[in-house]
Design the sequence.
């Protein structure tokens, strides 16, 4: 059976959820071989094995942390030569997309970004994409080289599928361009204790209607009652009420949770671009004409400062 | 030494319009009004600021570059009216249907022909939204990529910037020549002034075709693309949901809905 190379997104050995989703998709096409780079690379193996990785290629070197993107491209190129995979899959993070793109140039391969589904096909893997702010669904495939495909978070379930997960060191020598862009300093993002926005099953977002940084406590309280991540519209972020890292939309994060609750958000096309593929959408807005209601499975026309706290109370009561 | 800045800008269909596909499953660029991608305005803005801050020898000069159909000239005019010095338009019938890999090839050749110390791109185009082109361009040019910056500056032949990533915020540094891309957090783009709009009319716009760039038609366009779209289907409208007016029970009604959907 053909092997499929899966790029592992991890932080110091702890594998991020979208990579496990990739393993589910990879198993539809062939045998997953994972590639983990940098500090903690070998520590990723057990969890990757549980989810179907037949082999785990690992390499650690200071270059991965000290220089931007290119050292990882060098490693992928080596891995591609070693494995001759039927496809190379990446999670659609900003960095992984850049690595994928450069790998495609180097290997003379076609590139598909932000797939939301992947199936085997007679002429290679068929990727489903959601385009023009989810107004269209397309299927496409790569026609040259090794298909290089990036997949959005929450596009496939995480499935247990025990495999050998044999750790194999990969020998990488870096090219001249690897050290072109130096990382002078790195400040890790502080954890809020809430789920990661792009990975969360439920996202609760607030917009201009929240009307102030302090008022976001109302949104956070609802999120916490549901174990949800907190999102914000660009209007709320630009006003300085909530961090940019939490922005949902075209220039923020793209989310696709089971449940998306928008409060005080009008539903502009650029916001919809980042949340329209959510399974269930709920909106609270005092303007009955707000476009967000066109998407909502359930909408409440009303003041969010009345509706949201009542909802939070009721949830707490029902959860006992 | 002067500072030669090339800004890559894309002409895109208006997101507020009815964007759709043409019969050959390429983006229909005829039926929908186009404009300079809003995200590339930030690239023009940062180029103008870098040029304004330039205190090295010689002048800082900004060339805006686009690969696109005839109408893409509008995008160049807008960038010129914001203050860029000159423009290059790469236009050729054979370019219809070019994918990101092909576009990066053409841009790389055009950037090299223009001559550059710094290439500035937007974070993503508002139609394709791939956000990979700056990385592809750096790979092809063989120069450092310093991408997705919310802050950028150039001093003593070094470009420096801040990249706010998923898990960390990083300060990056590279020697020129380099390719950078900037996000919409980098600073609001200026509006063209009346004077700027008038001045733009006299600024030079060069037009190059594939011959000028010594590129074969087979390397680009639909024929040269390394991926193919097989189907494009309009997403069915979401079935109209329930909308209730809050009369004091809105929150509890919502809770009832969520419980019915097993979220509580
Ligand atoms: C290139 C580009 C990229 C962009 N990227 C993004 C992006 O990534 N994400 C994004 O979100 N936007 C993005 N935008 C901006 C987008 O166009 C909208 O301006 C933005 O989404 C509006 O945010 P909002 O819905 O919070 O504010 P508004 O549109 O002002 O809506 C506020 C809503 O709150 C309601 N409201 C007010 N008070 C209350 C109350 N007490 N109770 C209930 N409802 C209330 C109002 O009725 C209104 O509908 C982008 C724009 C451009 C041009
Ligand atoms: N046809 C084009 N002409 C000029 N620049 C482009 C073109 N396409 C993309 N770019 C540049 O590349 C950036 C990222 O585009 P993309 O990877 O398509 O999302 C844009 O913001 C532009 O700066």
Sequence:
């Amino acid at each position: 059976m053909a092997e499929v190379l899966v790029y592992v997104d991890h932080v110091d050995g702890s594998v991020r959820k979208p990579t496990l989703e990739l393993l589910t998709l990879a198993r539809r096409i062939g045998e997953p071989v994972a590639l983990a780079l940098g500090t903690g690379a070998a520590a990723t193996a057990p969890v990757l094995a549980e989810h179907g990785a037949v082999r785990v290629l690992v390499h650690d070197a200071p270059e991965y942390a000290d220089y931007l993107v290119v050292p990882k491209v060098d490693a992928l190129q080596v891995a591609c030569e070693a494995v001759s995979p039927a496809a190379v899959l990446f999670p659609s993070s900003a960095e992984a997309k850049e690595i994928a793109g450069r790998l495609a140039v180097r290997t003379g391969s076609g590139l598909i970004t932000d797939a939301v589904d992947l199936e085997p096909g007679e002429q290679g893997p068929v990727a489903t994409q959601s385009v023009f702010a989810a107004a269209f669904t397309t299927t496409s495939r790569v026609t040259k080289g090794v298909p290089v495909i990036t997949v959005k978070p929450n596009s496939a379930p995480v499935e247990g599928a025990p495999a050998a997960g044999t750790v194999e060191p990969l020998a990488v020598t870096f090219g001249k361009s690897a050290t072109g862009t130096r990382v002078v300093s790195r400040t890790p993002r502080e954890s809020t204790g809430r789920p990661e926005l792009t990975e969360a099953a439920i996202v609760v977002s607030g917009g201009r209607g929240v009307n102030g940084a302090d008022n976001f406590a109302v949104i956070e309280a609802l999120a916490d009652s549901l174990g949800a991540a907190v999102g914000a519209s660009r209007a709320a972020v630009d006003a300085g009420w909530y961090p940019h890292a939490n922005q949902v939309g075209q220039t923020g994060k793209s989310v696709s949770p089971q449940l998306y609750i928008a409060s005080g958000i009008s539903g502009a096309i650029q916001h919809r671009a980042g949340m329209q593929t959510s399974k269930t959408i709920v909106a609270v807005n005092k303007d009955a004409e707000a476009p967000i209601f066109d998407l909502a499975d359930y909408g409440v026309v009303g003041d969010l400062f009345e509706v949201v706290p009542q909802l939070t109370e009721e949830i707490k009561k029902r959860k006992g | 030494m002067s500072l030669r800045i090339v800004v890559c800008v894309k002409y895109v269909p208006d997101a507020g319009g009815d964007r759709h596909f043409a019969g050959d499953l390429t983006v229909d660029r005829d039926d929908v009004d186009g404009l300079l991608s809003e995200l590339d305005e930030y690239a023009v803005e940062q180029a103008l600021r870098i040029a304004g801050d330039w205190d090295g020898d010689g002048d800082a000069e900004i060339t805006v570059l686009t690969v696109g159909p005839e109408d893409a000239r509008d995008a160049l005019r807008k960038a010129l009216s914001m203050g860029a010095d000159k423009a290059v338009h790469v236009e050729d019938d054979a370019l219809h249907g070019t994918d990101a890999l092909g576009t990066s090839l053409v841009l790389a050749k055009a950037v090299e022909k223009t001559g550059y110390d710094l290439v500035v791109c937007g974070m993503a185009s508002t139609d394709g939204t791939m956000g990979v082109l700056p990385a592809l361009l750096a790979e092809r040019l063989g120069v450092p990529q310093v991408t997705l910056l919310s802050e950028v500056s150039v001093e003593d032949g070094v470009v420096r910037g801040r990249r706010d990533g998923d898990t960390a915020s990083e300060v990056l540094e590279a020697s020129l020549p380099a390719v950078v891309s900037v996000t919409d957090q980098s600073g609001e783009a200026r509006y063209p002034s009346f004077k700027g709009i008038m001045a733009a009319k006299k600024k030079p716009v060069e037009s190059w075709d594939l011959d000028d760039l010594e590129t074969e038609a087979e390397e680009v366009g639909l024929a040269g693309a390394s991926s193919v779209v097989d189907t494009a289907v309009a997403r069915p409208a979401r079935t109209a949901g329930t909308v209730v007016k809050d009369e004091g029970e809105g929150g509890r009604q919502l809770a009832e809905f969520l419980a019915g959907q097993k979220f509580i």
Q: What stands out?
A: The helical segments of chain B are 38-53, 73-82, 100-114, 133-141, 194-200, 221-224, 250-260. Chain B is about 25% helix and 30% strand. The first strand of chain B starts at residue 3 and ends at 8.
